[in-house]
């Protein structure tokens, strides 16, 4: 069925993780529609546009699985289990999966969404903030205190590529993490009028993609990915590293995922070999 869907852009692909399309099914494949064309909104991973056929199939399977209804499980990941399973999973991910990140960091894509950029990190409007005023050509002065700030969602991407997830965080990353917290909040307050006390700043583990990034969300927004077994407050991360620079190398961490997720299969394989 997927191969028979024709994708038509709903908006120009900006380089974000996802592109927005209208999917069209021809009458011959939609008999139940009474011979009429069927259209539906489609959220399609942008990384698939950069992948070869083999990588595209692997990435598409991952995104379909993640969006499918499945039993959820919680895994307690020890440092040993991370080394035996999670690291192998990360190594199996095609480099194309984060090609969209590199395009944003190089300012090749999403310049219209850019809020801040320096040698440490880039901050932009997350594509999940769907009520945001038009980023392309809109007067940014109108963004401050706009009615949509109740849905505020921004994304911070670190520049260095060797920092992939929370597990990699060490004392050496403290200057970067402090900058992402302090500057990210300051930029958001300056542009949107939302202050530090009105937003949550957090990191996902496991992350949706393996290039270290930080989420900035208004407390008034609908919570997305804020469950305790996935979201880690950036302030808490900084505190933990200030007390022990190797905290995340030694810590046991709880992770939520679907039982059909590829990462869970790596955990099961490690358990079988134990």
Automatic annotation (TrEMBL):
<protein>
    <recommendedName>
        <fullName>HIT domain-containing protein</fullName>
    </recommendedName>
</protein>
<dbReference type="GO" id="GO:0000932">
    <property type="term" value="C:P-body"/>
</dbReference>
<dbReference type="GO" id="GO:0000340">
    <property type="term" value="F:RNA 7-methylguanosine cap binding"/>
</dbReference>
<dbReference type="GO" id="GO:0000290">
    <property type="term" value="P:deadenylation-dependent decapping of nuclear-transcribed mRNA"/>
</dbReference>
<dbReference type="InterPro" id="IPR008594">
    <property type="entry name" value="DcpS/DCS2"/>
</dbReference>
<dbReference type="GO" id="GO:0005634">
    <property type="term" value="C:nucleus"/>
</dbReference>
<dbReference type="InterPro" id="IPR036265">
    <property type="entry name" value="HIT-like_sf"/>
</dbReference>
<dbReference type="GO" id="GO:0016787">
    <property type="term" value="F:hydrolase activity"/>
</dbReference>
<dbReference type="Pfam" id="PF11969">
    <property type="entry name" value="DcpS_C"/>
</dbReference>
